[in-house]
């Protein structure tokens, strides 16, 4: 009910109704009074003139046969239709019209206004001077026809007022509809905007200037709000991306620091271990020279020397990971050469059910470094790849490409040459990916791997100023991307081969 | 104005009754050259039209000291309603054919004006004339 009462349309109609209700009664009373007074004034005026004329006529009437002439005059007055009482009197006699109704009694007093005394007859008296003799003329005029005219006029006024009220109500309803309709449309549009449909246009057609301006300002406000909302959403997205990047950088930094710490520790241990192994290997070889070749001691010393060589090899790889291995003087060389050499070697050991696909651009991709370590990188990555595919076989992809500003954001912007090794093996989950570059981390059975392959690769790539990334999902294979800084220096011929 | 007159009239009606017999008379100064005026001349006089007596125009004075007297004037003398009378006077004045009668609100003023002007003609209750030696009744206009 309150919602209905507070409706703009109902209020407008209500206001119009109140105005009409307040205006119509006084308007009706005023118009009725004007009509009544108009009729009454006309009635009084005409009877006064008429009675005056009769009195003047009577005053000039010939004296001879006065009574008969006077009665004839009164009869003609009564026959005019308006006069219902006519009498001439003096002190001694009274003359009446012969056709006047006997029901009308003589007046007690004169009337001076229409409707006086409530007897429906307007009595008027004139003194008629005939020489020294004074007569009194009394006439009574019927007020009923005029009263009926007044009543009929008032009914017409009432009817006109009724029509006016109905027309006013119709106008009020139409006007309220005209005013409320654009407001209701605006309200519905605003509700759609509030409901999330921010593209809903607040557009209504109205000839009312205030409504047009309201529509304009609301639409302007909607656009401002939509713009602000979109700007805020964009800023939130940017902040989320920025936060993700920050967390990723932090994670990578922590990872690098951990790798570096491990590398430093492993390097220190390996260095000391190498120092220990040197006399063991040296004295074992000296001892081997002093004993017969086919003796049991010689066989034992041979095993000691072989174990010592394996230990030195392990130490070398650890030192490579920790970047403490002195590489040859870095040269500029095309990346393709060591990769193809490594692949040629791998084709002999990779199972036949694994297809090796190598793609590389025609132009040379020059990098600066030691070609032999790139060879080792390819060997390590491809070994891991074909072992990940195992007996099921698959495709081992090796791709070389020039890349400007690597797309995944994990590598600093710049010009790189990409060495990408991918497989269709079992892939890795995130928990494995987090540790693959750590030394001695392996998912293989004990004795099948040392866990130094990727650590060594990481160490080599880092020592060349590059970066390595990995993408992998369980069941969808793994892709290693090695980004080596591109160089424009001319290659040195001798550096093209590994043995150089 | 008319309503005020009506109210005043009603008050007069409910007021203590006037004397049983009363008259409205046409009066002039006692030494006025006017001896008699017929009803048409009286009517012309108070409608502002010139009425000459011995070549001298008469001066109408309208006595408005009593609402009932006013109504009797309209009904008996000029024989028209107030609005018609006003309209008639306005037409006459605009055409410069007539002069509006001088109006007085107090009987004493009417008597004084009559006393000062031998050509002045007015009307009043006969009781107001009484035995005033300065006034002379020339006609009974209305009797109750």
Keywords:
heterodimer, A: 500 residues, Beta-Lactamase, Heat Shock Protein 90, 5-stranded mixed beta sheet, 4-stranded antiparallel beta sheet, 10 helices, 11 strands, 55% helix, 16% strand, disordered C terminus, B: 144 residues, alpha/beta, D-Maltodextrin-Binding Protein, domain 2, 7 strands
Describe this structure in words.
The complex is a heterodimer of chains A (500) and B (144). Chain A folds into three domains: 2-168, Beta-Lactamase; 208-326, no CATH class; 329-496, 2-Layer Sandwich (Heat Shock Protein 90), CATH 3.30.565. Chain A has ten helices and eleven strands. In chain A, helix 2 runs antiparallel to helix 4, helix 4 (144-194) packs parallel to helix 5 and helix 5 (209-290) runs antiparallel to helix 6 (296-321). Chain A has helices spanning 2-5, 8-59, 66-79, 144-194, 209-290, 296-321, 336-347, 371-389, 430-433, 453-463, and strands at residues 83-89, 94-96, 121-130, 133-142, 331-334, 354-359, 366-369, 394-404, 415-423, 467-472, 478-485. Chain A is α+β, with helices and mostly antiparallel strands. With 144 residues, chain B is of the alpha/beta class. Chain B contains six helices and seven strands. In chain B, the strands form two sheets. Chain B has a five-stranded mixed beta sheet, sandwiched between helices. In chain B, strands 2-3 form a two-stranded antiparallel ribbon. The chains are: A alpha+beta (500), B alpha/beta (144). The A-B interface holds A 37, 41-42, 44-45, 48-49, 51-52, 55-56, 59, 109-110, 112-113, 124-127, 129, 134, 136 and B 2, 6, 9, 38-40, 43, 68, 71-72, 74-76, 79-84, 139-144.
